[in-house]
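User: I'm putting together notes for a lab meeting next week and I want to include a structural view of one of the chains we've been expressing. I don't have a solved structure, so I'd like a prediction I can at least talk through. The sequence is below, exactly as it appears in our construct file.
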Amino acid sequence: MAKTENKTKPTDQSVADYIDAIENKTRQSDCKKLIEIMCEESGCEPVMWGSIVGFGNYHYKYESGREGDFMRTGFANRKAALSVYIMAGFDAYPDLMTKLGKFKTGKSCLYINSLDDVDVDVLRRLIKESLQFMAQTYGPELTHRR
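Assistant: Thanks for the context. Below is the predicted structure for the 146-residue chain, given as C-alpha cells.
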C-alpha cells in the first residue's frame, strides 16, 4: 500500500499567534502552561500540526501497510474543552487516571475544561509516561530535539 498523507501535518503557522488568538484568558493561560509542560517532558519545541500544538514526532506503519508521521503528544484549544493528545491511550495508566480529576476521554484524547479541574502533576506524569511508551514503541524522534 502506498504511503497515504495525513491531513494533520506540521505547518509553519506560529504557535505564539495561535495562543495569542485565544480570547478566553484562562484558556490562554492553560495553553501556555501545557506548552511549558510538554516542552519540558518531550524536550521538543512546539510545532503547529494544523490546529494542534504538537511536540515531537514518530513514524508509524500499520499491518495494512498504511504509514505516516504524527506528533508524539500535543493539545488543541477546542470550543468545548482542551484536547490533550496522549498517543499511548489510557488503558495502561489506571492509577493515574483515578487521581487526575475531572475529565473525559476519547481513544487518545483527554478532554479537560480547565487545568484547575485536574491535578497538573498527575497530568505531567501521564504525558511523561505516554512519551516513554512512544519512545519504546517507535524509537527516537525523527527531527531535532531542542
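A couple of points you could mention at the meeting. The two ends are 34 Å apart (CA to CA). The longest helix spans residues 120-138.

User: Perfect, that's what I needed.
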